[in-house]
Every structure is written in structure tokens, then in C-alpha cells.
Design goal:
Blueprint: H1 2-5, E1 15-19, E2 39-49, H2 60-74, E3 84-87, E4 91-94, E5 98-110, E6 113-123, H3 133-144, H4 153-174, H5 180-186, E7 193-196, E8 203-209, E9 215-219, E10 223-229, E11 239-241
Helix pairs in contact: 2-4
Length: 244
């Protein structure tokens, strides 16, 4: 539906589709995305000029959306320490332990404008199949003696879109360095080790992401290099390869 409508609307008009439940949810690499009642599920349409900071770095959009989801919760007064985080390139995590959301971005270039469809889903009030944000809030209340209220999917979708709009504006004005400090504040990878090429490959340490959104790793004796996934759909960080 949104794919048919997006070319018919005025450029300045926003467009979002929200589902209470999905029966044919899609994940990365053709994976099925389970979408029971209690998830925040939506597809957002945005346009990005090709000749802009973000237009020249389109892969960054998935990172901005992941950050926006996390900040939709952690920017609420009192909820700053709820342990919601981002995992490169497009996952929302509880600490570094369990996935509770994801982002899928599709882009179409028409003349000098990118039409971007951003699908994002994250568990708000459904404990299965993994864990949800309200579980994390309940856990935080129990541990810290606080009385934070549960959050709703519609509230968090609205907050996510609002935060995303601000992040895009900052990125367009200042480029990657305008948003990366906020991104690193919530990501789970600082100092983590990965293997390059295959499961027995050399060990490298994650140091950050480059100007185009690819992961940067430091292999001893070889300096910092940018890497990307090898196509493995089970774990994006299982094996990483260095482009030739």
C-alpha cells in the first residue's frame, strides 16, 4: 500500500503505515520476522536528496533509525538507564544479550531523490519470542526501586519518528560526526573482538563505523580497515570480510 502511495504524494508530506500485527513480516536476507500483538510495527516513507550528506551515505539511514528507536525510550526523563542498545548494522538489543527489534531499509532513486521505505519493528509489550521494552522497564523498577510506567507501541512509534527527523536534520547539517557520539553511547560493540574472513580467521577489534556506515576494525599490525558482512544471515558479526 505505502509503496503505491509514496510516489503520488507531495514531497513535503510524510507517510507512515502502522500495523497492530503482521502476518508476513520480513527480516534481513529473506528471514521471517515474527510480529505478534504488542510489537511496534511500522513502515515509514522519507525522501532524501541525492546531493546531500545523507544522500551520499544512504547506508547510514539504518543506523539513524536504530538509534532513534533506542532514544525514543532513553530520552524520556527517568528512562535514561533502561538498558536498550543498538547492534550494528540494524538491530535493537537488550544490553548485548537479546534482540528485541530490527530495521529494514529499501531505497529507490528517482532522478535526484532517494525514496526510502523504512520498516522497523520492536517488542514493546510482548515477552515472546524474546523480550520486550516493558519487561526491561519492569526489571529496572525492581532493581532500582523506581516506578516507571509501561510504554505503549503508538507512543514509541511517534517518538521514534520525531527523534529520527531530528537525527536526519543533524546529519544533513554536520555529517556522520554530528550523530556518531550519540550512536556510540548506546552501541554494544566497543572493544569487542570479531573474526575476519571465516571462523578461524584473524582476530580484529571493533573500533567504530566509517563515514559510509561500514564497521571499522583494527587487526594487530595492519591498522584500521572497514569491513562488511559476508552474507551470513544468522549473525551479522560472525564473519566479516575486507573489501578488495
Amino acid at each position: 500500500l505505502i509503496g503505491r502511495l509514496m510516489f503520488e504524494l507531495p514531497e513535503e508530506m510524510g507517510l507512515i503505515a502502522i500495523a497492530v500485527r503482521q502476518t508476513q513480516g520480513k527480516g534481513r536476507g529473506g528471514n521471517v520476522w515474527l510480529s505478534p500483538v504488542g510489537c511496534a510495527l511500522s513502515t515509514l516513507h522519507i525522501t532524501i536528496p541525492l546531493h546531500s550528506n545523507l544522500g551520499q551515505r544512504i547506508p547510514f539511514i539504518q543506523h539513524l533509525v536504530s538509534l532513534a528507536v533506542v532514544e525514543s525510550v532513553r530520552s524520556i526523563p527517568g528512562y535514561e538507564d533502561v538498558d536498550l542498545r543498538v547492534k550494528w548494522p540494524n538491530d535493537i538489543y537488550y544490553s548485548d544479550l537479546m534482540k528485541l527489534g530490527g530495521v529494514l531499509v529499501n531505497s529507490t532513486l528517482i532522478e535526484t531523490t532517494f525514496h526510502i521505505l523504512i520498516g522497523f519493528g520492536f517488542n514493546v509489550n510482548n515477552s515472546n519470542p524474546t523480550i520486550c521494552i516493558n519487561d526491561l522497564i519492569a526489571k529496572f523498577n525492581k532493581e532500582e526501586g523506581t516506578k516507571l510506567k509501561p510504554l505503549t507501541a503508538d507512543c514509541l512509534i511517534a517518538r521514534t519518528v520525531t527523534v529520527l527527523e531530528r537525527l536526519i536534520d543533524i546529519f544533513q547539517e554536520k555529517g556522520p560526526n554530528g550523530v556518531l557520539p550519540r550512536y556510540y553511547k548506546y552501541w554494544i560493540h566497543t572493544g569487542k573482538q570479531v573474526r575476519l574472513h571465516n571462523e578461524d580467521g584473524p582476530i580484529a577489534w571493533i573500533v567504530g563505523i566509517d563515514d559510509y556506515g561500514f564497521l571499522q576494525v583494527h587487526e594487530e599490525g595492519k591498522g584500521v580497515e572497514s569491513v562488511h558482512p559476508d552474507g551470513n544471515s544468522f549473525d551479522m558479526l560472525r564473519n566479516l570480510i575486507v573489501p578488495k
